[in-house]
Design brief:
The chain has 3 helices and 17 strands. By secondary structure, the chain is mainly β. It starts with a strand and ends with a strand. The mean pLDDT is 94.
Length: 235
Amino acid sequence: MSFLKAEWRKLAIANYVIDPELLTKYLPPKTELDLWKGTCYVSLVGFMFLNTKLLGLPIPFHRNFEEVNLRFYVKYKEDGKWKRGVVFIKEIVPKAALTFIANTVYKEHYQTMKMSHLLKEFEKERSVEYTWSLNGKKNLFALKADLAPTVIDRNSEFEFITEHYWGYTKAGANSTFEYEVTHPRWDCYKVTDYKIDVDFNAVYGNDFSMLTDIKPVSVMLAEGSEITVENKRKV
């Protein structure tokens, strides 16, 4: 049985170029940085968790909620083959119980904050907005995009960002937890405008403070799908 089943929908993604050396201390043991054409990325991702079930059971008042995370991309070689995955710097959710479970069971880096979202469709465009507040400061990731979805191109930057199907986190000084995330290939929407107003230093720490003042190299919107998060194992 999968640890978690849900839908991830309307994934707003902003990708930043970062110095790989800044991520060294965050690398789980036995993993390596996964680069896009020689470039190291971190991504700010906001999306909706919908119809969430834990071990097959819906949890009252914890089925539908927002998440915003900051993540980077890694790979792990097993039996001569690379597995491509992500490592989360921090995952923000509005429910304290979610934070407790994720941090306790998966050794992740969740934090509970007040959050909200806005998803609207207009005559010619759609609007997606995620907000989260820390110490009275409201952080915002909003974008506008086309109404009609398109297929993510093969061998594209968008494919690189979305086609990482494993999660890795430090389990100890010399060990790592690995878990699989399953979902089909996603459709996407062409982004026409965006606004990011985030205090990266306050939310994610000094190592990522420079992101406050630089523009992302790309901003994306993926439709998402049903997903599963499988049980962890130590590697």
